[in-house]
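seq:
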Amino acid sequence: MSTGSHEFVRATPRPGGPIVSAVGYRTRGVPPALHRGLPSPYLTVIFTLDGPVVGGHTPEQATGPGATRTDVVVGGLHQRPAYIAQSGSEAGIQLAVHPLAARALLGVPAAALAGPVAIEGTDVLGRSAAHVREELAGLDDWRARFDLLAAYLTPDEDPLTGVRHEVAEAWTWLARHRGAGTLRGLAAHVALSERRLTTLFRAETGLAPKQAARLMRFQHAKAAVVRSVASGAPPDLARVAAEHGYCDHSHLVRDFHQYTGLSPTGWLAEECRNIQAGGHHNGED
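struct:
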């Protein structure tokens, strides 16, 4: 009996550019499934190559009549998993986009994208996004598709145009500390009060600095767990927690529950096949 096929192809974006990662995906003949789209410190942009992305805030919404159906997806930063009803045969390109580049690439700050599971890309990018999607679907080479998207989404201006220097520097500081720094240290670094920094940061990204820091820290910790599983070794959660700035193992488990809706072992069991197929490297270290 055939178990279907999974294909993942990665491009290498320009270092330091607004696009953090680009992954082409194609699955054929696999059983329909409910996928968890996990929170990330990056915006999500997806151009599908066949059917739409179908999803919701809950499993019931994603599989019911109230599901969103989007051919070009733009997603903001969020704190809970989104649920995607996968048909078993689908293809597209998923981009992880730096949230501070949202103004230059998408025309709005990342904060304007917070809330919905997915925003119709043409509502943000205009009708040109639908035309680009059609062109992508007509190509039969991943490299050509990546080049087309890179040209379409390369801003004419500085990707950080319109972003306050203090917010940009705060994000850089958090990323450098992999989310393990303190709000007090961050505020002192950018010479703002904690309250003022939080107000400016949230207005730009949709998240408070502490929320962004937790997301970054979890992203790196999850990536370490995934690498361990992909190599065939059992994950040492206590070691991962200690190496990534968690007070203890229980705090890492807490973050897994918040960001995946499952315990670490539960999430790994659910995603094991996808991990082994190479489908868990989208903007992670």
